[in-house]
Specification:
six-stranded parallel sheet, two-stranded antiparallel ribbon, alpha/beta, Rossmann fold, 7 helices
Length: 234
Amino acid sequence: MEDSEACTWAWIMHLEIGGKAMVRKVTTLGLAITGASGAPYALRLLECLIEAQVKVYLMISKPGQIVIGMETDLKLGGRPSQIQQTLTERLAAAPGQISVLDRDQWTAPVASGSGVPDAMVICPCTTGTLSCVASGTSRTLLERAADVVLKERRRLIAVVREMPLSEIHLEHMLRLARMGAIIMPACPGFYHRPKGVTDLVDFVVARILDHLGIDQRLMPRWGLGSLAETDSFL
């Protein structure tokens, strides 16, 4: 099997337990959507997760819900049950595959190490959320879920969307990176010659999926496919 085909149907993560490498099949993931611009990234990622048959615990902040309404044609209800029904129908998800959690739902599995998901992605991630996670404040379920993922040594990806970045923002990124989190700013590339906004969104989502270990065909890899046939970008 080629390296590029190694991960096909399941997400694989390598955990260090007692000094020995162990392969863990990823079946659950926490997805947090905050109020930074970049809602299309989150919705496209959610779509890919559903297609990969992953159980998703979805947490959307109030500002995140407002931004979704501003940047997309998706109109979400105010209650978690309404949002869950809308997304389940829109994405043709299996019953129970998407669980939308309230900001104060402390009995949710993601609030405890005994129910921690295999990974968590904050997409998009505001610098305010970045600060709270780096400081371990855990004032909301979203912040607590990220704290749990870190303490349980699972994979946390923060798709930061802000510019320019202050010294405070950079310090928080460095602090989380040292804890093992992956800081992945929403910075799409152009070497795949995007034809529109969708291609730019797919670039970022493809990189997120790569770091989660899921096979993706949103864009060709460097040196393969159409990119390998490109002699010049100018």
